[in-house]
Backbone:
């Protein structure tokens, strides 16, 4: 992997993490359990688990679920 690819991957990871944070905050503000809602969304691919508040549903739908899981796992294990 060259430096350009590494920069693209880092930028993509940051975008996905920012999107997850936006969705998490929107769910929390609306009184939902954000972790449960995100897990149900990932397992079912049903966007109604994500509130439309603050554009959260549109944001999460803009991310491929594989990419979403990839970033979540890589971020978790990178911190270990």
Residues:
């Amino acid at each position: 992997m060259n430096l350009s690819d590494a920069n693209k991957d880092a930028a993509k990871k940051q975008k996905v993490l920012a999107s997850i944070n936006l969705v998490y905050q929107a769910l929390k503000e609306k009184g939902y359990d954000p972790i449960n809602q995100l897990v149900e969304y990932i397992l079912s691919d049903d966007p109604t688990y994500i509130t439309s508040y603050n554009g959260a549903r549109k944001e999460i739908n803009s991310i491929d679920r594989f990419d979403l899981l990839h970033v979540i796992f890589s971020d978790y294990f990178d911190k270990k």
